[in-house]
Amino acid sequence: MTANNDPRKITRRNILASTAIAGAIGALPKIARAQTDRIVVHGRIKQSVCGGVLRKARMSLDDECALLVKMGIVGKDLVGPGDWATLKKHGLVATMVPGAGSIKDGLNNKAKHSEFLDAFKKNIPAAAAYKWPNVICMAGDRKGISDEEGMDNCVTILKEAVKIAEEHEVTICMELLNSKVNHPGYMCDKSDWGFELCRRVGSPRFKLLYDIYHMQIMEGDIIATIKKNIQHIGAFHTAGVPGRHELDENQEIYYPAVMRAIVETGYKGYVAHEYSPVREAVPSLIQAIKACDV
Predict the structure, then answer these.
(1) Are 216 and 188 in contact (CB under 8 A)?
(2) Peptide bond into 242 cis (omega under 30)
(3) Phi, then psi, of 142 in degrees rounded to 5
(4) Strands (DSSP E) along 138-232, which ranges?
(5) What does the alpha-carbon distance between residue 67 and residue 71 come to, in Å, rounded to a whole number?
(6) For residue 130, what pLDDT is reported?
(7) What Cα–Cα distance (Å) separates residue 204 from each residue in 91, 100, 106?
(8) Which fold does the domain 3-292 belong to in CATH?
(9) Strand partners, 75
(10) Is the peptide bond before 184 cis (omega within 30 degrees of 0)?
(11) Main-chain phi, psi angles of 212, to 5 degrees
(12) pLDDT confidence of 175, banded at 50, 70, 90?
């Protein structure tokens, strides 16, 4: 990196940009005000943050957005419509917004397909209007449904939903979750099942939300799986294993290596932090940002 491109270099433009958010930064809690330098240096991973990461900091959405911008974070993840205007005001991206279905009652439930399709018809155009890239969906619990039947049911509704997504240039992402610890019974709990679903739907507007925490618990082999299947991955979530806490030395995933592997695939989407901090929120986030800024 040359000196002219160094984001830490003090320039007239940087001073003006800092002035624009100085009022919001001044209102932040003391610990946040003390650590509001830009943290992202390389920026090859576009990092986003889920709401729970900074909940303990107890700041307003405006203050949180100002802090994220200052740090070099590009967006917030799993964001409802009530927060969209504030994110847009700060130049942040809502990297994942509501689509259809829930963890317990998802797209494998054929009886709810009409309801879910209505949700897609509402939520996909709403996301497109703000130029948000992704809407989330869930497979749902098995509840006596075989994995093959569940896949058939998911394919049926997703074949219709992707027509809407393709028209509006929004990607539907189904999240991979673990069924060992956090979500017993959840159907989309193995990457092979999810990638096969992507192949059967057959649209670039349906992909997986690959949660690194959940897949480390279920199957490991994270880097090789990502490299082999990156064409079917539309977003990533992070958290430490075990416990779903910080990306620190107390957990088993070496995130810098995982992030380098993601960069090497040419992936251009977002990586969102979704851990629950047990330490102070802002220092924890700084550590996570640095671990993933490769």
Answers:
(1) no
(2) yes
(3) -70, -50
(4) 171-175, 206-211
(5) 6
(6) 98
(7) 26, 18, 21
(8) TIM Barrel (3.20.20)
(9) 48, 93
(10) no
(11) -60, -40
(12) very high
